[in-house]
Design a protein that fits this description.
- The chain is of the alpha+beta class and 85 residues long.
- Helix content is 35%, strand content 24%.
- Strands 2-1-3-4 form a 4-stranded mixed β-sheet.
- Strand 1, helix 1 and strand 2 form a beta-alpha-beta unit.
- The longest helix has 14 residues.
- It is globular, with a radius of gyration of 12 Å.
Length: 85
């Protein structure tokens, strides 16, 4: 899994926070999560090289929305608890 973020925009804290949320939620399902510096306003979340969230198309992600799309790919049966509501 990878989160690519724009260094020019100073989005590292946002990317790191989202990474923490995902690693906490999927602590047994994810084997790795990398942060990839980019430029040009990029903020993209990928699972197995597949783009699951792109800021340019979908805006900045709410953690629950990203958790749902990640869950659907890595652990479809997993309950997200209160995030499901």
């Amino acid at each position: 899994m990878q989160i690519e973020y724009c260094t020019q925009c100073r989005w590292l804290p946002r990317a790191a926070w989202l990474a923490q949320e995902l690693l906490t939620t999927f602590e047994t399902e994810l084997t790795e999560l990398s942060l990839k510096p980019g430029t040009g306003g990029v903020f993209v979340v990928r699972v197995d090289d597949e783009v699951v969230w792109d800021r340019r198309d979908q805006g900045f992600p709410e953690p629950t929305a990203v958790k749902r799309v990640v869950r659907d790919r890595v652990a479809p049966e997993k309950s997200l608890g209160h995030s499901e509501r």
